[in-house]
Design brief:
The complex is a heterodimer of chains A (250) and B (311).
Chain A: E1 5-14, E2 17-27, E3 32-36, H1 43-50, E4 58-63, E5 66-67, H2 73-78, E6 81-84, H3 96-105, H4 113-127, H5 142-155, E7 160-164, H6 172-186, E8 191-196, H7 199-203, E9 208-213, E10 216-222, H8 223-226, H9 230-237, H10 239-249
Parallel strand pairs in A: 3-8, 3-9, 6-7, 7-8
Antiparallel strand pairs in A: 1-2, 1-4, 4-5, 9-10
Chain B: H1 3-17, H2 25-50, H3 58-74, H4 79-101, H5 106-126, H6 128-131, E1 137-138, H7 146-172, H8 175-185, H9 187-192, H10 197-223, E2 225-226, H11 228-231, H12 235-247, H13 254-272, H14 277-291, H15 301-310
Antiparallel strand pairs in B: 1-2
Helix pairs in contact in B: 2-7, 2-10, 2-12, 2-13, 3-4, 3-5, 3-10, 3-12, 4-10, 7-10, 8-10, 12-13, 13-14
The chains are: A alpha/beta (250), B mainly alpha (311).
Chain lengths: 250, 311
């Protein structure tokens, strides 16, 4: 099976800060992958590299045999790579449906406004926002704004969807609803990368987990192995705790 | 545009078209100025209103168009050719300038565009062999009667305003206009949903520059004499912004309503309070914008009464 997306020795620095160091990984079609790591590990930077927001300082990003590391964000989204932002990025005074239409009209290149509107409505129904279609986006609650981000990204007709902390700031029941939505999206055959700093969320959802720490990839394994990995425990809880875990598990 | 709006627009357009029948050159002159400013405000609205980029450089395109047309006309070329040439020069200059300046955002963009007018004025001043420098440039005299001239330039400005409105209408109802609104609302998100933001902004800026340049060329032919301080006047940058703000930014009718309202106020205040004129005008505009921040075109009598009734 050829990889859908492949990162080869990707690095990115901001001035003297190495946000991402020499990261290589591949993404296969139809996978749900978790991308975890403590705050500041470089998770969002990695997504920004892939989507062209902050291009890699060195290394290659290959998507379907095409190098995309020098492309602009609008060119990358036209290739079916969509993302949501950790801090939601709506078009505040446009209506909810217009926000979603934007994704359909540009990234998915639907030329007719009427068609874009009906496509947008489908995604609003899917994400449970249909009743709020004609409200300005700025009036939505945080949970609904996150859903709007999802609907907008789906309207871009992606085959890779990267979700940057879609659960941050949501309460327990809202998180459950969001996870159901993500499962439903995966069921459509879209490859998903979930960025989280909560281990609990990803272990229930992802078969494979990638762990970043200080900008370096420290683990890329099945979920069950990752949570027992001493390096991961150390990254999250400190070396003392990791040693204690090691002793207990022999 | 609803059917009612369309009907009102057509009635007003017909009424304006019939103005020369009044045979009053003062009114005709005022109407020609209004049409010119309506065009400038609509031209500014492409980049400032739709895309949300506050350009302070409209005078640069107005002046450039005036000189491009005037130089050609003074060399004996016919008027239509001179105007078309001005439009091309204005559009191309905006394309070039946009490719450089539209990398800036917010205040930096505003200041950069402000400087462009000054640079062009100095260049025009210096290039004496072609522009006449500080002495200005005389355009060929038509030999028509004053009223025939007034009518001709009235119709010319009307046609230009109508075409500019048509272009605004098409933009507002197109994918391109939708993209510009997205850019105004959140440029990073616009890029992420697949909009080529740089190209869209450059196109909007070019539309703005092209229409301002023709307005400048018609103005030059109309007045018969131009000089750098006249056509590169910073007020040609500021007034269209004020008018659009007054009428409603990023709307179709806002710039026209704003231009007419501004000039009517200007004329009334000037006639009655000659000495305090600019002060009073400024105060009136501040009050209007304070109470109607979205512009005069947002004023809805029904809502107003509802509010008044429930207050």
């Amino acid at each position: 099976m050829s990889a859908l997306l492949e990162l080869k020795n990707v690095s990115r620095s901001f001035g003297g800060v190495h946000a991402i160091r020499n990261v290589s990984l591949t993404l296969q079609p139809g996978q749900i992958v978790g991308l975890i790591g403590p705050n500041g590990a470089g998770k969002s930077t990695l997504v920004n590299i892939i989507t062209g927001v902050h291009p890699a300082t060195s290394g290659m990003v290959v998507h379907k045999d095409e190098r995309i590391e020098r492309l602009k964000p609008f060119q990358i989204s036209a290739r079916g790579i969509a993302r949501t932002f950790q801090v939601v990025q709506p078009f505040p005074s446009m209506t909810v449906i217009e926000n979603v239409m934007a994704g359909a009209m540009f990234a998915a290149n639907i030329r007719s406004m009427d068609e874009a509107r009906s496509v947008a409505m489908e995604h609003l129904t899917f994400t449970g926002l249909a009743a709020m279609a004609d409200r300005p986006a700025e009036q939505l609650t945080l949970a609904n704004r996150k859903r709007l981000e999802l609907a907008k990204s789906l309207a871009m007709n992606p085959h890779i969807l990267m979700l940057d902390e879609v659960n941050a700031g949501l309460n327990a029941s809202e998180v459950e609803q969001a996870l159901d939505l993500i499962r439903a999206i995966a069921a459509r055959g879209i490859s998903i990368v979930i960025i989280e700093h909560l281990l609990k969320v990803v272990t229930g959802l992802c078969s494979r987990i990638i762990v970043l720490h200080h900008g370096e990839l420290i683990a890329d394994d099945p979920a069950a192995d990752v949570i027992k990995d001493p390096r991961v425990i150390e990254a999250y809880l400190g070396s003392k705790f990791a040693q204690r875990q090691m002793v207990r598990h022999g | 545009m609803s059917r009612l709006q369309l009907a009102i627009a057509i009635v007003i357009a017909l009424a304006v078209l019939a103005m020369p029948l009044l045979g009053n050159n003062y009114i005709l002159r005022l109407a020609t100025i209004m049409l010119m400013y309506a065009t400038l405000a609509m031209a500014w609205n492409f980049i400032g209103g739709f895309a949300g980029y506050p350009s302070f450089g409209l005078a640069a395109f107005f002046g450039l168009g005036a000189y491009a047309g005037a130089v050609l006309q003074s060399r004996g070329l016919p008027i239509p050719l001179a105007w078309i040439f001005a439009a091309i020069v204005g559009t191309l200059f905006a394309l070039l300038l946009g490719a450089i300046l539209l990398r800036l955002r917010g205040h930096a963009f505003a200041i950069a565009t402000l400087v462009v007018t000054e640079v062009l004025r100095e260049l025009t001043n210096g290039w004496t062999s072609v522009t006449g420098g500080g002495m200005g440039l005389n355009l060929p005299f038509f030999g028509w009667s004053p009223s025939a001239l007034a009518e001709f330039f009235f119709y010319a400005m009307f046609a230009l305003a109508a075409v500019t409105f048509g272009a605004s209408y098409i933009v507002a109802h197109s994918r391109f206009g939708f993209g510009l609104t997205c850019i105004k609302q959140n440029e990073d998100a616009a890029n992420i949903v697949g909009i080529n933001t740089t190209r869209y902004k450059i196109y909007a800026f070019s539309l703005s520059g092209g229409f301002a340049a023709i307005a400048g060329a018609i103005y030059a032919s109309w007045t018969g004499y131009i000089e750098p301080t006249d056509v590169y006047d910073v007020l040609f940058s500021i007034k269209p912004i004020l008018m659009t703000l007054l009428g409603g930014m990023g709307t179709l009718f806002g710039p026209i309503i704003g231009a007419v309202a501004f000039l009517v106020l200007d004329e009334l205040v000037w006639r009655n309070l000659l000495e305090l004129h600019t002060g009073v005008l400024g105060l009136l505009i501040v009050i209007l914008i304070l109470f109607l921040p979205a512009g005069l075109s947002s004023f809805n009598l029904r809502n107003y009464w509802r509010k008044a009734a429930t207050a």
